[in-house]
Amino acid sequence: MEIVNIVKNVFGSSSLSLAKKVACDLSEIANCAINIVNYYEPATFKLEACRNDKTFPLTSTEIKQQLAQKILQQTKG
Question: What's the pTM?
Answer without folding.
Answer: 0.72
